[in-house]
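Contributing: when you submit paired examples, paste them exactly as shown. First protein:
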Amino acid sequence: MLEKFLKGFSSGIKQHLTSLSFLRLHSLSYFLLFPILFNLMVWLLGIELVTQFADAIMIWMEGVLREFSFGPLENSWMATTLYWIIWIALRILLFITFAYLGGYMVLIFMTPVLAWLSHKVNQIETKENVGWSSAQMIKDIFRGIYISLRNFLFEWVILTVVFLFGFVPFLGFFAPILFVLIAAYFYGFSFMDYSMENRCYGISKTQKFLQANLGSTLAIGLPFALVLLLPFIGPFIAGFIAITSIVAGAREVNRILT
């Protein structure tokens, strides 16, 4: 059992180390452009949302201040100061939210790209030129989003329990390690599930398969879990790690099944 775990873990890490060369070898390096577009989208959309919220809050505050006879805020230094305080506070809140939920935001919003890449890697690995119809694409995308949301809920329930156990003397020492391993398992599940879906595995069957190959599952999800621990830059790097993890996951599934 331990030997199988260590073999799977070692193999999964090796798949990560060769994933970039795999992308270059098979002319798939353009997939690394998608995380750049994703980060740009989050940045621009985030600024727009923050501006809209700030405007809405300012309108509300003007109404409140008029109620208390503070007079109008338009074109006053007070209005300008309040606006920028609110804008900066909301921007910080957005950044913190992305830092904590960035992993699953990447998995959910990049699902079409990850499903597409997984299909291409499986074609190369199995040497089967299987078509990817619009219906299959939509099915893969919805399953990817469902798995990400499902894993997010399960992970946070388990992490809450582990967090509570963290207050127990001695057990608390292992809590941070368990946090990373639990996150790695669920991220690895998400990355490898794309390949399982390509092989028509149901979610229940996929879960049994990944639990039976726990070493591989942890290894595939571990780099993604670790990079999200990096302050500030972690969520922005995560998109690139997601691309390489899809390659590593697809190749590892193929190794196990052949």
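Second protein:
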Amino acid sequence: MTVLVFGAAGFVGRRLVSKLMEARVEVIGADIATAGAAISCPFNTVDVSDRDAVAMLVLDVRPKAIVNLAYTTGVAIEADLDRSTRINVNGHVNVLDAARASGVRRVVYSSSIAAYGPSQSVYGHREITESDSCPLEGHNTTYGAMKAFNDFIALRLRTKCDVETCGVRLSIVFGPGRRHGFTTWTSRMLEPAGEDQVTIPIAPDDPLSLVSAGDAARLLALAVNSPAPLPPVLNSGGYRVTARSLANEIARINPRVRFTFSKAPTPPLFVDRVSGALAEHVLGFRQQPLPAALRAEMARAVR
């Protein structure tokens, strides 16, 4: 089985490549980055927004499945909306169209809980499931609106063509090495630095829904390799914690670290109660306990 991974040199992409190769899957990586030497699989430098280049690569590789993780995140989206749209929206369409044209049967891509909008209050105190949605006017970030639109486009293709698409709606992904996005501070919490003081840009009691980078990669790998049909979208679920409780968990592992928080609650960017029941039912996926996930990510940071 051959799997083509766009965004293979990225934060989650590198983890996914390793997971797939551990499962003895033949992996071909592709990314705009020139970090191919750091990837332990054949690597192609490709800009996902280049429609012809994407089509040619998919036609050449003829993979059984494609994973698309190529995405611009955080403030970089608003800083260059034209480029971000070409990558996040056009690039998504390019991958889907190339899959359809080349007879690829499965496309798994990284969606996000941002597709549900920023406010948990819209859904109440219950867990959000894959059947929930947020109207366009309910979004307060272009990132979330783009993710929701990508899910819509993928579902349209899935309905009309013989391509099984699945958007994995990841909670906030934490782990060392994250350099882009709204929540890069979750990486700084875990990475050793010259200072033991870490600033968290939200209030202590602000709630979060988290998934480790290792678990995110494991879920994506399970989706790629699943012998059973996949649903159109799939939540990762998430650890529901406050910023304070997360800091306390990290301090138990590394007592030297000290945290400071924003003095006032910050407007939410993401929902914080997300059900992972469907991923468990379809793929047998469950997150590891939070302390174990933190230890694993912190151990990776010192390698």
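If you have annotations for the second protein, write them as plain sentences, like these:
The domain at 2-171+212-237+273-287 is CATH 3.40.50.720 (Rossmann fold).
The first helix runs from residue 13 to 22.
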